From TrEMBL:
PANTHER family, sorted: BNACNNG14650D PROTEIN (PTHR35745), OS04G0513000 PROTEIN (PTHR35745:SF1)
UniProt KW keywords: Coiled coil
Coiled-coil intervals, chain numbering: 75-102
The name this protein goes by in its record: Thylakoid lumen protein
Source organism of this protein record: Thermoleptolyngbya oregonensis NK1-22
Keyword Coiled coil among record annotations: yes
Pfam families, per database record: DUF6825 (PF20711)
GO terms of biological process kind: thylakoid membrane organization
Entry keyword Phosphoprotein: no
Amino acid sequence: MSSPLVHAFFVGRALAEALTEQASNLASTLVSEAGKFDAEQRDRLRQFTETVLEKANREAAQASQGRSYAADGAGEDLQALIDDLRAEIAQLRTELQRYRSRSGI
């Protein structure tokens, strides 16, 4: 090394290269993590969608079995069920009105 100025130049250059490499590694890591996160979220959404569709299909199958049972002569049971549901709705409306009047809504 002939002078401190030349030495400082090479130190600065080495520092700049090291910082550039570190920044490049950090950027690569961030992009990689973002990609992993995106893939995980897509997979979770796909699994959630499949779960919901499976449940909907099961419930639809159960409902269709219930309809076939009602069509086989359980009309009286169906009417009783409808009457019970109407009574529950009326009771819930009454409770809702009481709640609203107490809450001032």
